[in-house]
Amino acid sequence: MKTRSKLTDELMSGQTTICVWRAMQRTLSQAKQVIGSAVMVALFVGSTPVMAASANVIEPMSASEPADMSDADETDAARKLRGEAQWPKIALTDKLLYEFLLAEIAGQRGESALSSTLYFDLAKNTRDPRIVRRATEIALYARKYPTALEAARMWVAVDPQDKKAQQMFSTLLMASGRVDELAENLSRELNDAGVRKGELLLEKQRVFASYPDKAAVKNLFEKLTRPYIAASADLPEAHWVRAKVAQAVNDKTSALREVEQALVLRPAWEEAVLLKASLLTSGDAQRDFLKQYLASHRESQAVRLAYARALVAGAQYDAARDEFKTLLKRTPDSPDVLYAVGVLSLQLNDMTTAEKNLEKFVAIGQGDVNSARFYLGQIDERAERYDEALVWYRSVVSGDQKSAAHVRAAQVLVRQKKFDEAHEEIAIARVGAEDDSRLAIAEAQLLRERGRHQEAYDVLKTALTAQTEDPDLLYETAMAAEKMNDVVVMEQHLRRVIELKPDDALAYNALGYSLADRNIRLPEAMQLIDKALAITPDDPFILDSKGWVLFRLGKPQEALLMLKKSYAIRQDAEIAAHLGEVLWSIGQREEALKIWREAKKIYPDNEVLIGVMKKFVP
Question: At what angle do helices 94-108 and 15-32 cross, to 10 degrees?
Fold first, then answer.
């Protein structure tokens, strides 16, 4: 043979190897008279049988991995009935068998380049579709792309009805930059398709949808569809395909023009309607277009689903839920619809409907069941069914909500006054998830609520060592440092948060309030709080900070207006403490006492509120 390697040298030299090979040949020769060649190859190659027939005839032959074995035992009659190529009858010479074995052994030993060369020679000599396919796949695996292209060309020639062969050949032509040749081949295929031209165009577009060079795909389909956009042969599928490839390169103007022409030719085409909706800017234009279509096509499930999702995107939750309920009547067991109705109902505070649909969704067991379990835990928690809530939270075993579920479970345990169990819940969750900042923050919060400020700070400081640029960890560590009266560390971390997230209103507010509360650098504190208010104007806590810094600056009347506005939005304990202190300072003591007493009924353990009341009402 022309191709030589270490493997061939081993097989063709060395007394022991020669003896073994001759013994194998004698065994093969004897076996051919008794059993089919499929069993012989299985004995020596140790893979899926690839030959089966009477002596000296390869009939049929199918590649072992990676080829599909489904056609290995097909008869010529079965293939003829489907109009497919019949397997060729090939004499099983010792040379042919030797080459086949050598190619297989080379592949098994990792010599893919040699295996590819040998299989390509076998493919040319036998022109058996199964061997040609094997040659193509091995050449691809060996990254011998020119060989793979020629093998694929041969595959299409010997078995023109094989869709896998056509797809492989097309892909290799595209990868080789031979767009013109590919367009010519596909054009011939379309010309022979008759009434299936449109359907075939859609198939070809789907084949190339995942190809990375989107511009090349667009170029290909513009050439391919040119004959089918003329007035005499205007195919809606041709325009749809052009729209899709234009969309893939972000040419929305061309995509919209083409899909609109497709709808002129076929007004009720759902796929074109959905494509146009995806091209329209999200908002009224998109929703109005889908609504208009549904007015005359009420049974369109796909378009109604798109419309419902567009309503959700526009925060029109009531209308969206109505659409999803309509879908649910028609498809009561649809996981997607059950989930959507459940989540929307939860958003609209319709807990009964939310619970019913989410429980059914979980029972079906398809889709994001962990998120549904998390939401069901929230429903039970809101209803103060704490034991049931814990069951749901603890059943969230994976996904984006896993850490949040542990945090919520810990908070439920705190409400049940089970502080040690709450801490244990977070501690167990953190095992194997040390880098999850949410869990570290939750553990610190539990410690802080129990007055263990140093431990809380240590937990956050340790977590921050591993994730030095995590904005949430920086913020929480700053707040923990503030509790330890370490203003330097607090300011350092908050300013780093501001550098990382210039629009983080909380960081500006926290730093400004901390300065104001300590009655230091008040003009700077005012600037920081004003910056926070510019980002989120109606945040009650930032309004509270503004009122507090005004009070520190000696402007009690302005402070009072700001604090009243804040308290009207949120009846929080600390806001009540500040509002009461300003009222007390201007002589409105009865009003101050009223505010404090009402707040204490709701927040009996709040340290700030208790402290201010002790200060003024010993």
Answer: 120
